[in-house]
Amino acid sequence: MRALILAAGRGSRMGRLTTDAPKCLVSLAGRPLLEWQMAALRAAGIDRVGVVRGYQAHLLGGRGLVAFDNPRWADTNMVSSVVCASAWLRDAPVIVSYSDIFYPADAVAALMAAPGDMAITYDPDWQALWSARFADPLSDAETFRLNGSRVVDIGRRTTNLDDVQGQYMGLLKFTPMGWAAIETHLATLAPERRARLDMTTLLSRLIRAGQRIEGVSVSGPWGDAGDLALYERLIVEGRLSMPC
After folding, report:
1. Which of 37, 127, 131, 146 has a CA 20 to 30 Å removed from the CA of 165?
2. Tell me: the pLDDT tens digits for 78-97?
3. At 133, which CATH number?
């Protein structure tokens, strides 16, 4: 199986940390996020990894990655970056990873083993981490509801904890059949609507259209780059162990 890291965007919410480099090269515990991701992917048995580049693309060369480029990275969203690697997604199952996250190899392995043509990982114990990050966890939470293992709702703002059965992590799997269903759906949208489409909105649209998306529950250390200072502090305090 292959993996694809979506690293085209600058990550403006990270401020000065991405002034000179893409967000996947921001360091956590002394290593760039990209290295944490590569270590997890390789430990799970994936040895062919691609990257969709955009902002400061030259800094992602010479790393043994298959490069795809999103020339419109500044005015498109993440779905457009995935489309840049359509040839890969049509050819074989692919694990798709956001570039500003870290996660354990076990999460990748569980996703690889998941049934169906589309699957995403989620953390059912998300509240502990979100409570450390936010005074009110719901201030940054979105809906994530399941019917058995099937995801039936994702990505809406909510004020009800019952609507949040887990936290979507930014780690997905698409088989060629799953990607074909996505391409069919994208073809129904106007070009600029496609350009603005974010991943959770796409997943929500697919769910409403009847597409089955498997939810894969995972545990272990993970996080996103929204609060690196907190993760550094938790590591120093021994409350967070990095996955690899």
Report:
1. 37
2. 999 999 999 999 999 999 99
3. 3.90.550.10
